[in-house]
Specification:
59% of the residues lie in helices and 0% in strands. The protein is mainly α.
């Protein structure tokens, strides 16, 4: 979530509606997540009152999650978003996080979970939020910081191709999980021949083929990573016109990071779309005066 927020403000060229609300939402998700573990045990025979006690924080955690999503989407409104591999994966994260999070609302109600527990609905839910969304965050961060880490740019064409194969592919793999789960496809079961699932074997085949294609698509990323490391275009200091301190030093950074000096920080890192500035952004270590942003 932090990586995505960071990359979004850079590619939108404007701050999020509220950085503070983003940070407090992330903190409350972290805090509340300590109190939800019992939602994995609704059907374990626990006291229904305990189930209720775990259902409550589980549903509460969707509030900061929703606020966070609304801030990302609301900030996109009217933004002139720069489409590149990093921003595509950041946007893909939001899409997957919402698609996977919505099923969390259902699972969070003990009465509905009696039906859905131990089905592919759960497997679909957690692959979207944990498997795909968090990987998208990792991909976004890799495309964004690779130039700083290695001093070379990744290939944007290959990056975008990687994004579209992965984005469409993962939806094809993990959306059907939800429908199979609703039909009654139990999880952790390897053979459905000659039973009630037989009519739906085609869906499993579809998902398998989608998974093979999506898996093969990751070779593009692997190739891009290795090829760009050695043969990529040399990266300038600040290829994304970013504000934060790591972009004020050469790519890759010298061994002592800031050349033995402490950088002087004049601004927060949200100085994008600054009116009256020379560029459309002001770096944290630039002494240029900017009007107070109120962020
Ligand atoms: C909107 C927020 C979320 C809600 C309300 C939610 C709710 C739930 C509930 C109630 C279950 C249990 C379902 C069952 O087994 O019957 C579940 C399963 C699971 N969730 Fe979430 N979840 C949310 C977000 C996430 C996130 C962000 C992750 C990880 C990044 C995650 C990972 C998992 C995993 C791994 C399981 C299944 C574990 C297993 O049984 O193997 N969930 N979720
Ligand atoms: C394209 C990639 C992936 C595919 C096709 C895939 C497929 C599957 C399938 C079919 C199952 C459940 C089988 C069953 O219950 O009968 C499963 C379980 C699981 N997967 Fe994935 N998965 C993928 C990636 C991931 C990733 C990236 C993560 C973690 C970040 C992950 C975490 C898990 C976990 C925790 C389980 C539950 C294991 C259990 O039942 O104890 N998967 N996966
Ligand atoms: Cu959980």
């Amino acid at each position: 979530m932090g990586i995505v927020s960071h990359i979004l403000i850079n590619s939108m060229r404007k701050p999020l509606l509220s950085a503070k609300v983003v940070i407090y939402s992330m903190m409350s998700i972290g805090f509340l997540s300590y109190m939800v573990w019992g939602h994995h045990m609704f059907v374990s025979g626990m006291n229904p009152m305990s189930a209720l006690a775990f259902s409550f924080p589980t549903l509460t955690i969707t509030i900061p999650a929703t606020i966070l999503t609304l801030i990302w989407l609301g900030s996109l409104y009217g933004a002139n978003i720069q489409i590149n591999s990093a921003s595509l994966f950041a946007l893909g994260f939001i899409s997957m996080f919402v698609a996977g999070g919505v099923s969390g609302f259902f699972l969070a109600q003990p009465s509905i979970d009696i039906y859905l527990h131990a089905t592919y609905f759960v497997v679909g839910h957690f692959h979207m939020v944990m498997g795909v969304a968090s990987l998208f965050g990792v991909f976004a961060g890799t495309y964004f910081w690779f130039p700083k880490m290695t001093g070379r740019m990744m290939n944007e064409g290959l990056g975008k191709l990687h994004f579209w194969i992965t984005f469409i592919g993962t939806y094809c793999i993990f959306m059907p999980f939800h429908y199979l789960g609703l039909i009654g496809n139990v999880r952790r079961y390897q053979s459905f021949v000659d039973d009630y699932m037989t009519p739906y074997l085609g869906v499993h085949k579809f998902m398998t083929i989608a998974a093979l294609i999506t898996g093969a698509g990751q070779l593009i990323f692997l190739f891009n990573l290795i090829y760009s490391r050695f043969k990529g275009q040399p990266a300038p200091e600040n290829p994304w016109n970013a504000t934060s301190l790591e972009w004020s030093i050469p790519s890759p950074p010298p061994w002592n990071n800031f050349g033995g000096k402490h950088p002087i920080v004049y601004h927060d890192p949200f100085q994008y779309g600054v009116k009256g500035s020379k560029g459309d952004f002001v770096m944290q270590d630039s002494p240029e005066q900017v009007p107070a942003s109120g962020n």
